[in-house]
Design a protein that fits this description.
The protein is built from 16 helices and no strands. 51% of the residues are buried. The chain has 398 residues and is mainly α.
Length: 398
């Protein structure tokens, strides 16, 4: 089937719900710490609340992969979207800071379940030579949501109220749930003759330990650098004496450049291979992070931010694409659960590592350390990870 037909076929069941959920998720991530402060909580507690979403994702990655293999992709996606809908509606009713915590964890659980189900579904829907473009579109929609969601959510909270903004996020998730329920096909997994799920997970870790150690470490490095970008731009901007409006504008420009590259990046990955984008992306990201200590004002921060936007645009959807390429057909759910857990270690552990380094050393040391890990991940990718597009084709031929 031509890829354009596949895009049209998945527009309503996958791409449109992804866009709605991206807007909802990004709005919630911006509003949550501000709402904690609004309710009288401190900055440290606000950071903990936001971090609980990552904890929920990390804890549920492997169980989500098991659920995909046990019940299929559609139930996993539906369960995740329902969890995110409940979170948005519940946050609109909560007025005590500590009561936010269970719903934020539920938000992370729902995010993990949705993303695992969607990734497995798209791995089935597209051949290897099409996945780069197909999953890069998902990455582009996530970036578009990061561009729209905070602005819409912030305006709703400012001019209406936080409960109204949370309610809007919940409604967007509910609309996504309706689309998934009505239009997404469910293909029950074939579990005949297979071992129990926990044994399957152990088998995945044992039989794919080299791939998980090498390609997985590179994926962890990519996610770590992405989380560093989100923190270092505002922190170094504040040190340089820039106000919040200017820092926000710089981040938006970086995101706009990032967003503009998703389809060309996917096209290159499908035609020539994943390394054609992953290697320059990691190299440029690590190089840009190492430049943060040289930031002294508006133009230097803008230059570093644009380099990071360019680098991240090169890798749009990359971690998802590599996971889909490497996943064995018969144990796809379990493999993707472990794969996402490794990537989420970088994404959720990044802020914790940066905070620790800032506390014990300095912000400059933190930026250089993240850049160093990025260069190390790049070296592992170049020396020890085979081209996953070729790997996927070989597996298909088998």
């Amino acid at each position: 089937m031509p890829i354009t037909s596949s895009f049209r076929r998945l527009l309503i069941p996958i791409y449109l719900p992804s866009f709605l959920l991206s807007i909802s998720q990004q709005a919630l991530l911006i509003l949550l710490p501000l709402y904690v402060l609004e309710l009288g909580g401190g900055a440290a507690f606000a950071a903990v609340v936001v971090g609980l979403r990552g904890l929920g994702m990390l804890l549920f990655d492997v169980p989500a992969g098991i659920l995909v293999s046990r019940f299929g992709e559609k139930p996993s996606m539906m369960g995740g979207v329902v969890c995110m809908t409940i979170t948005g509606l519940a946050l609109a009713l909560v007025e005590t800071p500590w009561l936010l915590t269970p719903f934020v964890i539920l938000f992370g659980v729902g995010t993990s379940s949705w993303m695992l189900g969607r990734l497995s579904y798209m791995a089935d829907a597209f051949e290897s030579a099409e996945r780069g473009r197909a999953l890069a579109v998902i990455g582009g929609l996530m970036r578009l949501g990061a561009f729209i969601g905070p602005a819409v959510g912030g305006a709703a909270a400012e001019f209406l109220s936080y409960p109204v903004a949370f309610l809007g996020a919940g409604v967007a998730s509910a609309l996504a749930a309706i689309l998934v329920w009505a239009f997404t096909q469910n293909i029950p997994p074939d579990r005949s003759g297979q071992d129990p799920h926990l044994a399957q997970v152990q088998q995945i870790v044992s039989s794919h330990r080299r791939i998980l150690a090498t390609a997985g470490f590179s994926a962890l490095g990519i996610q770590l650098m992405r989380s560093g970008r989100q923190l270092f731009i505002p922190l170094f901007g504040a040190i340089a004496g820039l106000d919040a409006a200017i820092i926000g504008a710089i981040y938006s420009l970086s995101s706009a450049l990032d967003m503009s590259l998703f389809y060309p990046a996917g096209l290159v990955m499908d035609r020539w291979g994943r390394k054609w984008m992953s290697v320059p992306s990691m190299a440029l990201s690590a190089f840009a992070l190492a430049l943060f200590p040289l930031v002294t004002g508006l133009y230097s921060l803008l230059g570093v931010a644009l380099l990071l936007g360019l680098a991240n645009g090169f890798s749009s959807g990359l971690v998802m694409i590599m996971g889909a390429d490497l996943a064995p057909r018969d144990l796809r759910g379990e493999f993707l659960g472990v794969w996402r857990m490794i990537g989420d270690l970088g994404w959720t552990g990044g802020p914790l590592l940066i905070g620790l380094l800032v506390e014990t050393a300095s912000l400059t040391a933190a930026a250089l350390a993240v850049a160093g890990i990025g260069f190390l991940g790049l070296g592992v990718l170049v020396l020890f990870v085979e081209e996953t597009l070729q790997t996927s084709k070989a597996e298909t031929d088998d």
